[in-house]
Amino acid sequence: MQKSSGEIPCRARVDGLQPGTRYSFVLAATNALGTGCWSTLSTPLVTPPAAPAPPVSAVATVSVDAEQQVVVTVSWECCEEPGSGALAAFEVQLVPAELQHVRPASDRRLLCERIAAQNMRAGQRICWAKALAAPGYYLVEVTAENIAGQRSAAAVLTLEVRPEVFPPSIAELIPPVPSWSEESLLVLGPAASSAQRFADLDASTWLQTLLLWRDRDTPAQARGVQRLSSGTLPSSIDVLCFFRRPGSGQVFRAVLAAQVTTSRLQVALPPHVPMSLRLAVNMDPTVAAHVSGGQVMSEPLVVLMSEEGERLRPTWEIWSRPATAARQAPRWTSLPQELIESIEAAWLEGHPKAGIRVVIPVHRASLDAVAPCRSVRFRCHSSLWFVAFRKLQGAMGHSTVFP
Questions:
Q1: What is the pLDDT, as a whole number, of residue 278?
Q2: Torsions phi, psi of 175, nearest 5?
Q3: Which of 88, 241, 257, 397 has the smallest number of CB atoms closer than 10 Å to its CB?
Q4: CATH class of the domain at 176-219+227-303
C-alpha cells in the first residue's frame, strides 16, 4: 500500500479476485506502534463477469437429406466457466477457407447464424444444420456469448466437402437430345406385306426405310450419370410420327417404335404422306416434371416420298409489302431449306404458331418511308396439296400465325 501526502487518497491494488463476485473492503492503519482499528465496510462492488468458456467436443458432419441437399451438421457441448454469468447465445459461422480473412457478406457460401442459449446447462449438447451451396474447404467456428455481451474463444473445425457429394442437378439429369444423322433416312425398297404399319392410310405400296440418328455429344458428363456401351444411347427413346392425311386439316400422331436404345430403326412408311418425325427421350418422372412440356425431343425430320422412294421437296414461298403500300403487287420469294423444314414441321404437328424471324431487305433510301408494320404471307404448294399461311399485322419478327 502506498501512502500519499496531503489530501491525495491512498490506493491499493488487490489481485486474485473472482469474476462476477460481490466484495466489500475494510482498512486499518499501521505504524511503528502497531495496527489501528479496522474501518467500517466499504460500499460493496461486483467484479465483472468472466468471458464464457468456449464450446467443447465440437463435431461437424456432412450428409444428403431427403430433398437431395448437402447438409452440414455441427454439434457441441456447453461448458461452464465460474463467474462468466448466464449464457445468452451461440454463434456458428461456416466460412470458405479462402475467405477466412475477408468474409464478404455477399458470398452465398458464407453462413452465419445466432442460436439462443437461455437455460442451457453445462454438458448439454446442441446441434445446428444448414444446406451447403458449393463444395470446398470450410472453417466452422462456434463461439459462446454471455448476457454481458462477452464472447468466448472460438471452437474451430475444418471441413472438406468434395464435389461428388453433391447430387447431380436437374439440368445434369436431363438426357442429351439425339440428333438426326447427315443421312437420316434410307429407302430400302417396298415393305413386305407383313411389315407393321400405322394408321389406316390408303397406300397401295409402303416403303421399308432405315432411320439413323446419333447421340448428341455433351461438353461434360453429369456426375452419377453413366453412358452405356458404344452403339447404344444413355436413355431409351420413342420415335414419333406427326402427319396429315391428304386433303385433311387434322393432325395425327403415331408411335413408330417405343423404348428404342439403339441409334437406328427399320420402319415402313407410306408414300405421298407429309410426315414430321421426332425422337422423344424417355426420362424419370421427377426429372420430366422440371422440363417444359414434360418431354425432350429432337429436331424434326420432315419426310415426303414418292412411290419410288424419292424424297419430295415442297416449295415454300413468302411475300411482303409495306403497310403504306397496299396497292403494291405481292412478290413471292423462295425460302431457305432450313426455314422451310421448320415451318413445315410446325404445320404438320399442328402448332398454332411458328417461332421464326423474317427480315426483308429494304433499299436504304426508302427506310424512313417504310412503316414498321408489314403484311407477311407464306405458302406451300406441290403436286399433292396447297396450303397458305398468313402473318397478322404487326412488327417484323413476331410469330407466324397459322389459320
A1: 94
A2: -65, 150
A3: 397
A4: mainly beta
Q: Cell numbers 400465325 correspond to what residue?
A: 401
- Please answer whether residues 269 and 303 qualify as being in contact, where contact means their C-beta atoms are separated by less than 8 angstroms: yes
Which of 108, 145, 114 is closest to 128 using CA atoms?
114
Q: Are 254 and 245 in contact (CB under 8 A)?
A: no
pTM higher than 0.70: no
Higher-pLDDT residue of 222 and 54 is: 54
- Tens of pLDDT, residue by residue over 267-289, are 999 998 889 999 998 887 777 77
Beta strand extents in 249-308 (DSSP E only): 251-262, 264-269, 275-281, 296-297, 301-303
Contact 75, 111 (CB under 8 A): no
**What residues does 34 pair with on adjacent strands?**
31
**Is the per-residue pLDDT at 150 higher than 70?**
yes
CATH code reported for the domain at 56-165: 2.60.40.10
Strand order in the sheet with 155-161: 111-116, 87-96, 136-146, 155-161
**Where are the CATH 2.60.40.10 domain residues in the chain?**
56-165
CA-CA distance, 238 to 185, in Å (whole number)? 17
Q: pLDDT tens digits, residue range 87-111?
A: 889 999 888 888 766 666 566 567 8
How far is it, in rounded angstroms, from Cα 297 to Cα 176? 10
According to DSSP, the residues that pair with 74 across neighbouring strands are 60, 128
Mean pLDDT on 41-63: 87
- Residue 83, Ramachandran bin (φ over 0: left; ψ between -120 and 50: alpha; else beta): left
Query: 213 CB contacts (<8 Å, ≥6 apart)?
Result: 178, 179, 180, 181, 184, 263, 264, 279, 298
Mean pLDDT of 154-163: 89
At 341 the three-state DSSP class reads helix
DSSP per-residue codes, 44-106: PEEPPPPPPPPPEEEEEEEEE-TTS-EEEEEEEE----TTS--EEEEEEEEEEGGGTTT--TT
* 274 closest CA partner among 320, 321, 311, 222: 311
CA distance 209 to 183: 12
Note the pLDDT tens digit of each residue in 239-253: 999 998 766 778 899
At residue 74 the predicted structure's pLDDT band, cuts being 50, 70 and 90, is: very high
Please tell me the distance from the alpha carbon of residue 149 to that of residue 114, in angstroms, as a whole number: 13
Q: Among candidates 371, 373, 370, 368, which has minimal Cα distance to 391? A: 373
